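Q: Could you predict the 3D structure of SH2 domain-containing protein 3A?
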Amino acid sequence: MPSSTEALKKELEEELKLSSEDLRSHAWYHGPLSRQEAERLLQTDGDFLIRDSLSSPGDYVLSCVCSKQVLHFKVIAVTMRPRQGFSRVLYQLEQDQFDNIPALVRSYVGDKRPVSESSRAVIVNPINRTVPLSVVRAKQESQKANKENRRSLHLIDSSLLRNKDRFGSHPGNLDILKEIPLQSAQSDSNLLSAGSGEYSSPQEEPQPIPLSPMFRTGSDPVLRAKTQQVLPLDYDGNNALRGSDSQLHSKAPPKPIRAPSLLLPDPPEGTDIYCELVPRVPVTSRKYADTLKAEEKWKNRARATETTFGFLDTEKPPDIFPSGMANLHKKTNFMVNQPITESPEEEDDFVRPQIQTISSFKPTTFQSVLLSPENKPLEPNALRKLKEIVSCRDCKESALHILQEDCLDIRICGVLKEQQKSMGVRSGLELIILPYGQQLRRDLLERHHLLSLGVAVDILGCTGTVTERAHTLHRVICLASELLDYAGDLFAFSAVMKALMLPQVARLEQTWQILRQTHTDSAITFHKRLKPSLREMDECLTVPLPNKVVVPHILPVLKALEGEDDWGGAVEESCGRLFRILQAARSYATNAEVYQKNAECKLEGFTPQPELREAFKTEFSLRMFWGSKGATAEQAARYKKFDQILNVLSQKLEPETQRTRLASSVYGWTY
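A: Sure. Here are the predicted structure tokens for SH2 domain-containing protein 3A:
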């Protein structure tokens, strides 16, 4: 027995030593614990534990005590739709969603907010397990086996009773008796006889049944069987009986197959066909560009005869046409009730937009002042020089530099007429909502992520004391505040906030604690104002007025149109959020000129510093983070590799011990 106890204790210790992201490493997770066992462990208000949902595999249950009553809340695992072989699982409790169960527990325990608005239950004290999960699982399996045995015995007893009743007072079993039972409200004389071996052939035409010779009164209906063929009784049990039969058949009818029983051949080219079994979308040979050209031609009715009279396509002025042709031209214009115009063709004719398929960022041809031509990823000298340049500048000045680069990359201002013609629109805010604006959307998502990585490197690259890191954190929060209030750049504001809420930054417990002690105002601003503002903008609950913003919060629009958004939760909520995002996208495109004027007014008289401006360029970030050779690698591989680098930097600053892992997972500091 002592050896067995030591083995279980050692197994429990091995489980608790796992990574903090692994659910098994948390003692408050009890695995497949039954509801009754959970209620036995929970005693006082605030006690809680996490267990598997036995009724819904893959989901979890949060069991807690509130007002001396044990409550159970189901945590639903929502799998997002795969995109190019990628899928993501979110865990939803009430209206909140989390990346994993430990993050859920940290959020509710750290913020001390109610788990449910109706119950107002708050979880405080975790109930930790004292045995490994294998013991809990084995106990649950044994209980399940015992329950199945009892259930099988009960089924055997009940089947015996049913057989006894069937051959006792109930009518004969239809599978054994080879006769057709009489239907209700029918007599023997009006029914066809159904012998055990003789049946009417399906090819024979059915004969009418004569009236019953039995004497009937005037009130009794004269029964005559319908002139239809009576189907024979199927002894194999494939034909189900009607509800009026004395006993229902024991075997259900087969379900219809989902695949169509008839597959039509492909129609010949040039023909449209519609069929209920094989619906097809009519194919048109007319392209979208041709439609736009036709609309442009008919926009000015004075030029409506261009498609009929070929002589009007010539570049000669109208006054040199022959007299007969000139008269015909006048008659044609008179017929369309338009004045005769002799001015040359307008210069702003329709030009087919050019579909961009290559990124606008060219790291290979980027001329850098801070980096060498063949630089390596995260060179120490370049990082040190970059930190000096950024830290010695005022936050407002840095915000204006970021704003200027965002306006150029999003194409809010500084767009030439030739570029507008190639885009087909005047602003990038209009292009991002169009189908052929996919490359611009991808470029902007890339820039947003690189801005976040740059801020994270600034924080995690501070290898000095904890106080220095806390000061860097304070400076980043001030930058986010200036981007929101002073510069009006909501795009960059969300990128900086994303960096502050990265797991590698949020886990720096000592740094955040020193921040609360030395820079209390920044900590309060981050929690009470910046985070709620970002949450409202992500959900598009409130769209700021165009006259107060320079760069709107286009991140939800980009992620929704590129299929990178998380649509977890109820269908009604997801549809409502999508509707709000599309409304915001329409507002951004409609007010593109307003945003352009705001940008020009905000940047009027602003003179950027060359080195600081380069620090916020996307090409510089690509070269800085992955080097001159790795900057052109595949995006997914680059992001995965850099995420591992951030993990190493974070662990190096504040190594995670077993004690801190257990404490942070329960009372964790989620920012």
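Q: Anything worth pointing out?
A: Strands lie at 47-52, 60-66, 69-79, 89-93, 96-98, 125-126.
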